[in-house]
Structure to design on (1143 residues):
């Protein structure tokens, strides 16, 4: 093909550099800017699609140029099925979302900024997945974080949006630091960042070191992919415009961690601890995310927590695979693709609803079925697809995940995944009942609701088509990835997959009874029969209690340290104990998210507090300067004597 | 062949123009009409001359094909050469002089618009020339005494740059600075006297050779202690750092920008020159670990204190303190990659701190000082706000800005020297740094505007600011421009360490 020599580079350089010219294009006119942006998206998709033929059936091509010759830093692309798959997903969903934004964001201010960050994001995300070395991956990893920050605080006049942006940036930064440490540790052992060197020579690294590296990189991945325990940033990121949530926080950016796990699977799957941890984090997150989706009344909370939960499925599948040739690895990626379709569609459908209603509160909705028929149908597709009803793609991918987990034989993991699947259907169904079915709420009666604009429906429809047909492409997809296990059609209709469908009924019946038939009154149910359950729900399934304890532990530690420095320990001890008992009581009352946020901000807060304390010492008097200098002199002396 | 005159030319030009500036600016002041353009021309002329002399020196140096890359030029070139004043030209010193030239030029342009607005002062620019000349001569010096003398010249000049506004707090800060610098000088002189007693010379090469064959090291430890303490005070290593935040906060912003970009970086350079080029290989005296501890301390304390500050200028001053911590990481590695990281960091760190101080100067001139005052600044003054965002992101090491590449090189240097723990501390510190710098951005863009603000962004002050912004962005994407200049320096260190 003609494009072959250029497309590996242009696919990410084009959107990256085009982003700089968005302000220029806006100067010409808003129509021109729209055409320009969509044109760039289109060409990106063409370039990425042209890569497919280069890597079909598991071939891989590595190209590189030298970026900084004196430091041996290379700029390269690694084309293999994994990277090309991700690049295509990004450019495809990116284009769909860009088209959707034309209509969705039409009346907003600051669109230049919006499209600048969107193109920058598409370029960086493709750069992230297509990079041939870890340093380049990290650079783009940071850049997509920056884009996420810029887009989450897009409505910079709303304090919540800006606050959420800061939270998202700082929380993901914690993961980035862990990842950077992992990468630098790898470098310290191999003196190279390239995947090629890593794959060939990882055997040279001592096993304990490799374990540490794997855990650091796993931590980086799970933060990026919003897995437990640092998943709360994803819900905060919902302050972004829904089109952004769709692209960044549904379909692509959060998959950065999934990509990294899939990429490094070959190296780290030799470490049992890494595998176990991955599987457990995935399964637990799948379960917890699903339950959180069940209790939210924010319409965007449903796809947000659902994304957390579904990525949990993928990561659990990776943990169940003993090597990149195993079923779990394939199942995880398969689910990644189908999730990109159905969750992307989910966000777009919800975007249409928010666009028409101007509220995110599900309790104020209801009976939208007749007013927004197209959105209703799209939402049904989302729900069927998300829950894994055959023949939607997610049925196949979840079935594969289930079989890969069953093959590990770990009963608790299997139970977690099955119950997560059941709850998935429950919360999806609940969402449908609350918004589309039932009576119109008093809020909605006040104005006439229209169907979403055509452009929005069309772009959502493209994703809907993807949801429906992708499931039938499992065999070509498998060939594309070059996975070599024997394909067996009965795999899909075996016990595991059917068990999945069975579990949906278990999840669906309670919701049907409580929300649709109203034969069980939810308040009554909560107060009488499910007191324990309700209690757990309100407390975030006792996670807040555990995290409260952990957070309190940190608080205790820091306050103890503080008081031991300032005042005599014994004098303060009773107060400290009493004080902390009070704090413990207060903390157990705080809900899950707040506590977790506290935990992550804890280090920053504690250091800020200490900083304030130290500042007092730093009063600025000259004798103190000289004293400090003398102390430094002494320290220098002691250290020198000790080391020589 | 490079002669004495060519090496000294930049400093001589600068010091002569410092002397001429006093009467000349006095004359310019009387011609009220076009005082700015004339002043600017007067300021730029010596820079053009200095630039030309540096370029010719660099071309000559890199064009020569002599055996040793270290050119030693003696004032008295016979058998007394070991006690004569001498200069040393190598890739490192040439690179550093270019760095001072570029950053000094930009801060001088800034100062013309910043200081010259209310009362055009002849003193200020004369002092700037003098400090720059002193720093350049110190960089070229080839023995410890010449280094010391020119260093004192620049320190004395800096003192008067700090006190320029004659406010109570600036007088106090200047006094503190002066006392600390005098203590430092005393330390250094005492250390130097011991070294002279041990070796009989202060020439870098003679000292280096003599130390390598020294048997009794107890006196060397004492000498090292005093010299390092002295230079640690001048480059503000924790716990010798306390004068720096006071001085930089009280000084006019143009001074802070100039000092942080030129004098600070020069002091790091001196540190590196003395430690890496004289006291190596480290088995003469095992100093790297000791200084690694100080490096960790400096980064942590600098960033912690910066986190606690509400005054933005003071916060940036503490970022300067943290910067020397990062530089010390590379110095203690004693590796070619470390030298490269150092040299790159000198340039980038200097530019970034200068940028931050310049922007804060603009903001301060509107009467805004604390973090709360900055609320909503980004929306009212978009150009100023963006420049500060670039500086913050570069400080915190966000990729595609120059700060990332600088930090990357520093951390890999630590890893190359088997001090991964130091790299880890450095990375954690970067996280801390990100936290308070993002807080700054948060205040600038997220908070509501507190005060009713009049005034517009001063366009002429934004010119030097955006020169720096552009170079930070370009160096982040294409660091090779500078790295090509630095690379010979790294090779020279390899040569030095192997011999």
């Amino acid at each position: 093909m003609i494009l072959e020599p250029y497309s590996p580079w242009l696919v990410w350089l084009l959107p990256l550099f085009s982003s700089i010219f968005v302000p220029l294009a806006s100067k010409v006119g808003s129509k021109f800017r729209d055409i320009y942006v969509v044109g760039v998206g289109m060409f990106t998709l063409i370039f990425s699609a042209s890569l497919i033929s280069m890597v079909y059936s598991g071939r891989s091509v590595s190209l590189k140029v030298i970026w900084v010759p004196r430091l041996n830093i290379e700029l390269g692309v690694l084309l293999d099925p994994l990277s090309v798959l991700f690049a295509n997903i990004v450019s495809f969903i990116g284009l769909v979302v860009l088209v959707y934004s034309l209509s969705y964001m039409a009346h907003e201010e600051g669109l230049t900024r919006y499209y600048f960050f969107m193109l920058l994001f598409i370029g960086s995300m493709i750069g992230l997945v297509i990079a041939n070395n870890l340093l380049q991956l990290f650079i783009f990893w940071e850049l997509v974080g920056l884009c996420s920050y810029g887009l989450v605080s897009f409505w910079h006049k709303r304090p919540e949006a800006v606050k959420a942006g800061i939270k998202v940036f700082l929380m993901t930064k914690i993961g980035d630091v862990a990842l950077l440490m992992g990468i630098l540790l790898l470098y310290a052992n191999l003196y190279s960042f390239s995947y090629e060197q890593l794959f060939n020579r990882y055997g040279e690294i001592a096993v304990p070191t490799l374990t540490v590296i794997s855990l650091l990189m796993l931590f980086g991945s799970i933060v990026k992919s919003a897995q437990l325990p640092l998943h709360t940033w994803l819900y905060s990121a919902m302050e972004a415009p829904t089109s952004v949530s769709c692209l960044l926080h549904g379909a692509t950016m959060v998959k950065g961690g999934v990509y990294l796990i899939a990429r490094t699977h070959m190296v780290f799957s030799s470490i049992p601890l890494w595998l176990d941890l991955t599987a457990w984090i995935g399964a637990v997150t799948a379960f917890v995310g699903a339950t959180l989706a069940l209790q939210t009344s924010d319409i965007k909370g449903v796809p947000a927590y659902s994304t957390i939960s579904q990525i949990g499925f993928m990561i659990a599948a990776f943990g169940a695979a003993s090597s990149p040739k195993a079923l779990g690895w394939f199942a995880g990626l398969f689910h990644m693709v189908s999730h990109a379709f159905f969750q992307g569609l989910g966000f777009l459908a919800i975007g249409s609803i928010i666009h028409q209603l101007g509220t995110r509160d599900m309790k104020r909705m209801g009976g939208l079925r007749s007013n927004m028929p197209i959105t209703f149908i799209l939402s049904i597709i989302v729900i069927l697809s998300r829950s894994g009803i055959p023949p939607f793609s997610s049925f196949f991918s979840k079935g594969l995940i289930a079989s890969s987990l069953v093959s590990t034989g770990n009963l608790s993991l299997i139970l977690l995944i099955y119950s997560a699947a059941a709850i998935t259907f429950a919360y999806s169904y609940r969402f449908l009942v609350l918004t589309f079915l039932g009576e119109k709420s008093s809020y909605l009666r006040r104005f006439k609701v229209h169907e979403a604009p055509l452009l929005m429906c069309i772009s959502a429809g493209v994703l809907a088509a993807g949801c429906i047909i992708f499931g039938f492409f499992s065999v070509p997809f498998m060939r594309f990835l070059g996975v070599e296990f024997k394909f067996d059609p009965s795999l899909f209709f075996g016990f595991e997959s059917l068990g999945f469908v069975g579990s949906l009924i278990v999840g669906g019946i309670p919701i049907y009874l409580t929300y649709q038939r109203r034969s069980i009154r939810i308040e009554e149910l909560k107060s009488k029969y499910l007191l324990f359950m309700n209690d757990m729900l309100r407390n975030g399934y006792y996670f807040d209690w555990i995290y409260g304890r952990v957070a309190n532990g940190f608080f205790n530690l820091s306050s103890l340290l503080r008081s031991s420095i300032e005042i005599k320990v014994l004098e303060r001890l009773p107060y400290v104990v009493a004080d902390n008992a009070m704090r413990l009581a207060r903390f157990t009352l705080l809900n899950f998210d707040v506590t977790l946020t506290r935990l992550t901000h804890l280090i920053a807060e504690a250091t800020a507090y200490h900083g304030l304390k130290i500042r007092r010492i730093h009063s600025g008097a000259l004798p103190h300067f000289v004293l400090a200098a003398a102390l430094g002199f002494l320290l220098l002396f002691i250290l020198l004597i000790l080391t020589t | 062949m490079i002669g004495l005159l060519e090496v000294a030319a930049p400093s001589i030009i600068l010091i002569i123009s410092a002397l001429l500036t006093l009467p000349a600016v006095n004359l310019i002041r009387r011609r009220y009409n076009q005082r700015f353009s004339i002043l600017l021309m007067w300021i730029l002329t010596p820079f053009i001359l200095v630039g030309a002399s540096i370029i010719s020196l660099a071309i000559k140096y890199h064009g020569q094909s002599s055996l040793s890359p270290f050119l030693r030029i003696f004032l008295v070139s016979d058998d007394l050469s070991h006690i004569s004043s001498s200069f040393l030209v190598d890739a490192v010193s040439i690179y550093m002089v270019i760095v001072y030239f570029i950053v000094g030029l930009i801060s001088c342009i800034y100062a013309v618009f910043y200081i010259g607005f209310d009362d055009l002062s002849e003193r200020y620019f004369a002092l700037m020339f003098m400090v720059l000349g002193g720093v350049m001569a110190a960089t070229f010096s080839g023995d410890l005494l010449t280094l010391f003398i020119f260093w004192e010249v620049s320190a004395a000049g800096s003192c008067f740059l700090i006190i320029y506004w004659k406010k109570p707090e600036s007088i106090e800060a200047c006094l503190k600075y002066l006392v600390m610098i005098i203590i430092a000088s005393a330390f250094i002189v005492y250390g130097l006297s011991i070294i002279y007693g041990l070796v009989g010379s202060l020439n870098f090469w003679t000292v280096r050779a003599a130390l390598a064959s020294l048997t009794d090291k107890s006196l060397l430890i004492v000498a090292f202690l005093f010299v390092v303490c002295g230079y640690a005070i001048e480059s503000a290593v924790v716990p010798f750092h306390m004068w720096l935040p006071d001085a930089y906060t009280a000084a006019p912003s143009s001074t802070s920008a100039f000092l942080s970009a030129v004098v600070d970086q020069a002091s790091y350079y001196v540190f590196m020159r003395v430690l890496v080029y004289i006291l190596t290989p480290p088995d003469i005296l095992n100093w790297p670990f000791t200084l690694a501890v100080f490096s960790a301390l400096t980064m942590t304390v600098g960033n912690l204190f910066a986190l606690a500050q509400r005054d933005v200028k003071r916060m940036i001053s503490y970022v300067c303190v943290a910067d020397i911590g990062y530089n010390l990481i590379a110095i203690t590695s004693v590796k070619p990659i470390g030298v490269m990281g150092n040299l790159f960091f000198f340039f980038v760190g200097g530019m970034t701190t200068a940028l931050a101080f310049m922007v804060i100067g603009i903001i301060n001139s509107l009467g805004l000082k604390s973090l709360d005052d900055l609320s909503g600044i980004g929306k009212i003054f978009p150009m100023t706000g963006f420049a500060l965002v670039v500086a913050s992101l570069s400080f915190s090491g966000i990729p595609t800005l120059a700060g990332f590449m600088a930090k990357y090189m520093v951390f890999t240097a630590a890893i190359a020297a088997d001090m991964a723990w130091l790299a880890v501390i450095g990375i954690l510190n970067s996280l801390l740094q990100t936290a308070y710098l993002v807080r700054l951005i948060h205040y600038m863009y997220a908070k509501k505007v507190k005060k009713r603000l009049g005034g517009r962004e001063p366009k002429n002050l934004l010119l030097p600011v955006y020169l720096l912004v552009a170079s930070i962005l370009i160096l982040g994407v294409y660091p090779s421009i500078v790295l090509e200049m630095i690379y010979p320096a790294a090779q020279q260190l390899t040569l030095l360490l192997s011999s």
Remarks:
- Chain A touches chain B through 56 residues (CB under 8 Å).
- The longest strand of chain A covers residues 61-68.
